[in-house]
Amino acid sequence: MYKIHLSLCLILWTGTLVYAQDPFFTHFNGAESHYNPAMTGIKGSRSLGIKYKSQWGTASIVPFQTGLLTYEESLPCMPFDYGLAFAHSQEGDGRLQTSDLGIKVAGGPGMTLGRGLLNLRLGLNAQFSQKAVNYSKFVFSDQLDPKYGTVDASGAPNPTSFVPPNEGRSRVFFTPAVGFLFNYISNTKGYRPLGIQLGAALHNAYSLGRPFNGNVYSLLGLEVDIPERYNAFARLDWIALNDRKAYFLSLSPTAFYQRQGELSYWETGLRLGFSRLISAGIFYHNNTAMGTGANTKWMSFNLDIGEVLPDYRGRLDVGTSFSWNQSGLKNFAGPIFELTLTYHWAKSVFCRGSGEGYRYPDKKQPGLPCPNMSFSNDRKRMYENIWYKTLNFRGK
Predict the structure, then answer these.
(1) Are 380 and 116 in contact (CB under 8 A)?
(2) DSSP secondary structure letter of residue 39
(3) Whether the Cβ atoms of residue 183 and residue 126 lie closer than 8 Å to each other
(4) How confident is the model at residue 215 (pLDDT cuts 50, 70, 90)?
(5) CB-CB neighbours of 379 under 10 Å
(6) What is the CB neighbour count within 10 angstroms for residue 30?
(7) CA–CA dist 396, 391 (Å, integer)
(8) What is the mean pLDDT of residues 363-384?
(9) 3 state DSSP class of 6
């Protein structure tokens, strides 16, 4: 019975402007370009990432599941970076499903600011989406028999006269996003620099128009426009302790806010990192339906480990997150679990010369050779240095 009630509520929400909301992940970390396309290619590598979230599951309810597959490449020899992403979300055993496919680009000018460096990045995501409902998993009123229930006297299932519009699928609708990022590092030559990232993004920003697709997403053909979704975040990265030869410790407080229609969400927390090997963080989350006063609060703990492979062949990062409810669905829904796997290649595909793709910067090759392009300056383009590792700490 809980499955039926919960599924019906979700389907009703897909046709209601007030409470409709796109699927989203618990953490901004590990899905940065999914929330803000200006973060596309910010890692300083060519990478393939998988992110999975399971939530709201109990002993009697199949959990909601959301998956994200991303491919991104940093291109310091070009004026922009690019990425591809596919996301799929489904309610429990597949009654309601949402699929997204997008192409992302991001880039912008870099400039010196005192002893620091400033990058202003603009990102675009040309994304198309579709929703679908498996109506075969539902029981309609004309299928109910007062004596035998959903079957007839011989035990055969009762038919229904309901015919799903478009075989249970919405039209493919355009859900583009535009994002902005302010990225600053205080001292490029110091051992304890301070990094500041401020960003904002707008999703479902434009419609191609009806009747072809537009941003109409109703499954019943009710011509309901999908509401715009916007978010903002702030993150600091501070090297609190740097031994220079052995290790460094970093602190990274983060705040993230998102709103769509009358639903708002925000998270805030702190991450502690040890070199580039391991980091742990604790976060507080709040989800609120505006105007009703109802909200759900939860805490989460996440752990990330990563390692640069021998001879800089690549890097593998693994992240996990576990959440527990503090209110709202505390006594009904199970915990939220997320898993992130990302592999980074140390070579670029498009920044290449006569041989194989050039390596990204590392200790052996501090610069990435690039074509001479007047509108691209790789020395002022900032990327996250995932390739740095302290060799003395490794005992070498």
Answers:
(1) no
(2) G
(3) no
(4) low
(5) 12
(6) 22
(7) 6
(8) 52
(9) helix
